Amino acid sequence: MAGGQHNNSKSKKLKTISLQDAVALIPNGASLMIGGFMGVGTPEPLIDELVRQGKHDLTVIANDTAVPGVGIGKLVTAGLLRKAIASHIGLNPETQQQMIAGKIEVELIPQGTLIERIRCGGVGLGAVLTPTGVGTVVEQGKRKLEVGGKDYLLETAMRADFALVQAFLADYLGNLTYALTARNFNPVIAMAADKVIVCAQHIVPIGVIAPDHVATPATLVDYLITNTCPAKKTETNPSTH
Fold it and tell me: pTM for the complete prediction?
């Protein structure tokens, strides 16, 4: 997961797949990067199917654990997580309760550091230097380096077994675009996992997405869910603006 080698071998053909078959590929104990910010931009159908199939002992790497009944919060409620690596859990009391009870391990990472560690994993870098956390409990157990007279923490790259991505548009090659703030972590986690599974609100013919509008190129996508994945009510259709 963390510090893994960059995988440059994604020249394979995109596979369209059913929701059930996509989740069946995920073994118990897998590490998952999941897009979303408080559930916005999270592939809810994939979350629901993980719960239905009872996948357990999962390590989830995400911005947050949302709230009970929403996004990753459903995995927490179902007791399917072994570990959550996130920037905050403050709005999900169930995550807090399970952490205090020792039922789930929680690793909190400053948001900017978290996304940079993921990005490093996606582009083949081993680590990032950041001043965030120097002189606090964050630096415990980490290597500290001085560069130009300033102290930095060495934060290692992160990768996962699977990335679960929510897109606004996907074409039949697997090129993706995102809707407004629902973009959040999605395009970055798509670079940093061994297998990338995508739910899209709309699947369109090749050529509908202009080349300069592609946020995630098809070469990064392994599986595209054949049935479309509606957005949460809190997500806005960019075509209305």
Answer: 0.88
